[in-house]
Amino acid sequence: MNAGPQLTRVPLASAAPGSPRHLTVVRYGKANARPKAYLQAALHADEIPGLLVLHHLRMLLDNAAARGEVIGQVVVNPYANPIGLAQNVNAKLLGRYALSGGGNFNRQYPDVVEAVATKVSSTLGDDPAINVATIRRAVNEVLDSLAPLADTDRLRLTLMRLAADADVVLDLHCDEEALLHLYTGKPLWPAASDLSAQLGSRLTLLAAKSGGNPFDEAVGGIWWSLAERFPGKPVPPACLSATVELRGEADVSDEVARVDAENLLKFLTRRGVLAGDPGVLPHPLGDATPLDGVDIVRAPVQGVVSYTRALGEQVAAGDVVAVMVDPGAEDPKSARSEVRTVATGLLFTRRSTRFARAGDVLVKVAGATPLAERIGGPLLSD
Ligand SMILES: [Zn+2]
Known about the structure:
The protein is α+β, with helices and mostly antiparallel strands. It has two domains: 6-285, Aminopeptidase (3-Layer(aba) Sandwich), CATH 3.40.630.10; 292-367, CATH 2.40.50.100. The protein has eight helices and 22 strands. The protein has helices at residues 49-66, 82-85, 113-120, 128-145, 151-163, 193-199, 215-229, 254-270, and strands at 6-12, 21-28, 36-41, 73-77, 88-89, 92-93, 97-98, 103-104, 168-175, 177-178, 181-185, 203-207, 240-248, 287-290, 294-298, 303-307, 314-315, 320-325, 336-340, 345-350, 355-356, 361-367. The strands form five sheets. It has a nine-stranded mixed sheet, sandwiched between helices. Strands 10, 15, 17, 20 and 22 form a five-stranded antiparallel sheet that branches. It has a four-stranded antiparallel sheet with strand order 19-18-16-21, with no helix packed on it. Strand 5 (88-89) and strand 6 form a beta hairpin. Helix 1 crosses helix 8, helix 3 (113-120) crosses helix 4 and helix 6 (193-199) runs antiparallel to helix 8 (254-270). The protein is globular. 43% of the residues are buried. Bound molecules: zinc ion. Zinc ion is lined by residues 44, 47, 106, 173. Zinc ion binds next to loops.
């Protein structure tokens, strides 16, 4: 097999007669070559920046392949969610939740840990490399044995099967308005700090278990869950799996996407997937903080949202970050409600729609210390 690119159409479950769906998967490098990297974009189908970044990355990888520089393999899934991409309501693309009722497209990935543990419990030994190969085989066997029915669950399984045996998994998302930031597993830090520095990430959020089994954790968390299960056996965190939040939903331009793609290429080069010189690792722009230190600030009432603080500002616990204005208040003097954060840290996301219902997420502030009300709870906003 040559170095690629090799493009395959991976069929997906059809939602209705006459409506076939597929993924377009592009492979570089020899099958089974290591390290293997897997990248996908727009799992939340209305998060567009990653679509353009992978377009640019494919052009860079085409050139690398032509120069014979693909040492491992790179699997690019340039649009991960054709179900969501087809969801238009009132002339708007709505890709976060399945309109069919299948839930948030980045939650409820198959949890294979129990089944894999049963398969490998008597075969794990003292050689970490052999254990990694044993576990990867078992993961693939378990995924092959699953047969979900709903089209959304079958998409989830297809994505897991593309990614589960990779050394590097990057799931490209964005927030509404946001700084570039990452989510990754606590056991992967600081090993993943080169990813953060190369991408110019302003913040990395760490958790071992966020709740809801999002894609990056369903893939990467297999390793630290098994390490915990078999403390006497060496089970390394063999998959660097991360969610890359490529700023805000409107931050889409060729100029920015090209630089992001070049940075991903340098990261893959530094990780030995590609040959060549990745250059000097840039100075990190941000730190890692615990996911349970993020204050997810919600609207206390319905109303118009007027922010008082900007993205990228350092705020302190007790600071007002927004004012909500109730357009239906009897007296306009009592229409305004201040919204405060309980964290001290970096304001890194904001809601884009300037009207909110009570309970909607307005901003997120990343603090360095876990917040009492967040510990042990579901750590991701839905
Ligand atoms: Zn997303």
